[in-house]
Amino acid sequence: MKRKTLRRIITMAACAAMLASCGGKKEQKAPGIAKVACDESFEYILEQEINVYEYIYPKEDVLAYYVPENEAIDSIMAMGSVKCAVITRPLTDKEVSYLRSNKKIVHQQKIAVDALALIVNPENPVEILSKKEIAEILSGDVTRWDQVEPCKLGEIDVIFDHQGSSTVKFMRDSILGGKPFGPNVSAVKSNPEVFKAVAANRNAVGVIGVSWVSSDLSGRQKSVEELAQAVEKSDTTALDFNQEVKVLKIRGNNEVTAYRPYQAYIFDGSYPLYRSVYMVSTSPGGTVSHRFYSFVTGFQGQKIIQMTGILPATVRPRMVQVE
Predict the structure, then answer these.
(1) Range with the lowest mean pLDDT among 209-213, 263-267, 314-318?
(2) pLDDT tens column, 186-234
(3) How many other C-beta atoms lie within 10 A of the C-beta of residue 237?
(4) Long-range contacts of range 234-241, CB-CB < 8 Å, 24 or more positions apart?
C-alpha cells in the first residue's frame, strides 16, 4: 500500500486551497497512474520525487510500494501492473533477456550513490570505527563499547531497519563476506525507528541510509512548491547531519583518515560504505511510468536526490563544509 505521509496530504490540501483562493479550479486527474516498487531503504528519496512530479504534472499519479529489494525485483519480473522499480543493482543479463523475450522494453539507469551511515547516541564517546571494527561488532566478536574505546558504556546493540532489507544484505555481504551476524544484531521495522532507537539508547549503533540523518530532513516541512522551485537552482548549500544522533567517521581497511558520509567523500570514494541505486522501467514511451522514469533520471529528479543528502548519478556533488 502506498504510504503517503501526513505532510504530503496537508501540502496537497494547501495547494488546492491556494488555487481556489485565486479563482482557479482544481484539475481532475486523468486515469494516468504509474506503479513503482521501491526498496524500502529509499522511501524518503522516492517520496520527494513523487511529491514534486505530481505537483508539476497534476493529472498524473504515482503509486509507490515500499518493500524489501527482492520483492521489488520480483514485481518487475512478474510483468504485472508494476512497471518501475528502485533497487541497489541493475537487472542481470538473464533477467533482461527474459523480459525482452516477453516483448518488454527494458530501461535501467544508475540514479544515485547511497551511503550507509553508522549512527550512535550523542552520549557515546566513540567517534571513529574502522571497517575491521565494524566487522568484529557485526559478527559478535566485539560485544562491548569498552573493547572499542575506554568508556563506561555496556553491551553494543546493533540495529538495522528491517531483517530483509538491502542494508542488511550489503553489510552481511560487503563487511562480513556472507558470514552470519552475531547475537547482538537486531532489526526494527523502518529507518525512522532505527533513528529513534539510537536517539534513546546510549549503547545502540544504527545502520541507516544517509538521507535519513541529513539535516536536510528539515525539507520534510517544505512545501511541494518550494521543492519544485529548488530543483531548478544550482546551489552550494552546506550539508550537515541531524544533531539528535552522532554520525560516526568510518575508516577503510589500511587507511589512516576516517570520513563521514558527506557527498564529496562519497563522490571520490573516500567514504567506504557506499552502494549504487538504480531505477528500472519496463514501460513503453508515452506512459506515465516512462515519464516518471525520465523525470527521476533527468536533471530535476537528480537535483531532488542531491537535496536528500545522497549523491546523484549525473549532477555534480554539492559543495560542503567539512571538518
Answers:
(1) 314-318
(2) 999 888 899 999 999 999 999 999 888 875 444 344 556 655 665 555 5
(3) 14
(4) 235/318, 236/318, 236/319, 237/318, 238/319, 238/320, 238/321, 239/214, 239/215, 239/263, 239/309, 239/318, 239/320, 239/321, 240/214, 240/215, 240/321, 241/117, 241/213, 241/214, 241/215
